[in-house]
Amino acid sequence: MGSLYWRVMALFWVALVAMIAASIGVTSLLIERDHAVAVPPQWLRALVSDIAREGVHQIAQHPIADALGWARTQSGGPVRVSITPLDVRAPAVAPPADTDGGREISTREIAIGTEGRRYAVTVHWGHPHPPHPSSRRLFWIVLAGAALLASVLVSLLLARYVALPLAQIRDRARRFADGDLDARVGILRIGRSRELVALAREFDAMADHIGRLILDHRRLIGDIAHELRSPLARLRVALELGRGGSSEEIDNAHQRIGREVERMNRLIGQALDLSRLESGTRGPAENADLATMLETLVADARFEATPRRIEIRLRRTGAVPIRAELDLLASAIENVLRNAVRHAPEASVIDVELRCDDDGALALLRIRDRGPGVAEADLPRLFEPFFRTADARQQSGDGSGIGLAIARRAITRAGGRIVARNAEGGGLEVLIDLPLRAA
Fold this sequence. Notes:
Number of helices: 10
Number of strands: 11
Strand order of the largest sheet: 6-8-9-11-10
CATH class of the largest domain: Alpha Beta
CATH topology of the largest domain: Heat Shock Protein 90
């Protein structure tokens, strides 16, 4: 139990004690007032006499059974009414008198019933005596003790209801901070109020997101290290071959070293781009014409595809205005084009089509190659960092396995969407949707 538990308990307890003390004080004042306010004795005597005369009237006008029923209806509280025949033994009745300052008043009337018999109508009014001061003091002490005990129990329960869920959430937060990425609050054991349940869900959502980021970064670091081993190993071999070799072998080694250094430089640059995208760091958004940007990117891709006699066909409409981080968006589209060129067969065709949707709200970009496509089971993972299909693993191309991951994050950050699917007739088709800039 932390200090929060006892602070909450003390707060509830003080509030309850204050309420109980106020209630006891008000009740005591009301009781004392009731005892202090006395009805004038002359009023009580008049009331008692009226009841007795009414009893005489009932006996004289109605059968005795009805008169006895009337007497029972009149008796109650401080008033007692009795009708007693005088020719039978009856309890003695005090004469009309005041006792204890008007607290008790009695009267007696004689009546003759309808059958000629004589009856005594006795009416007695008695006010309850106030309790003795010591008795009242004991009563209030017992009542106050019971109220305090009940307040302690209620305060403990309320404090437990509020503090324990927070302690449960705090424990999961500490475990998560200590490196347990699977620590989650889940279902609260107690105190499942709407606010605390919402807090627990938000914590679990935050933990899920942070856990994925940490795991992705760990995997990214491991994958980068793995990817760098291959060019480093080739660099070492090239250096060994270049030592003491012929001039041709030295030239070949220099060329190999240059290619491997360029590949490592490109891999490190892409890793930095991916880290920037995942960290949420944003650059300035700029206005541009996507069609013009695409023409430049296609021209670069054609230069790369020329040695393999791959034709890239570009079909586009007019200007397509967009607003985005242009360097990231260009890198995303370039990565998709490079991926298509890399997997397209020699002397094949790559289709690139850009148009606006019918509503004029989206730019639709389609890039299709005529390669082997991707297994349906691998399509959902195609945009994960360093994921490669079985066919790609068997190839020795220059792909880093990170380009499509950068493309997805850049397109998503621009407010768009990117998906990949196997096209009819063979090949992979990548579809990109981007919001158009408002005029």
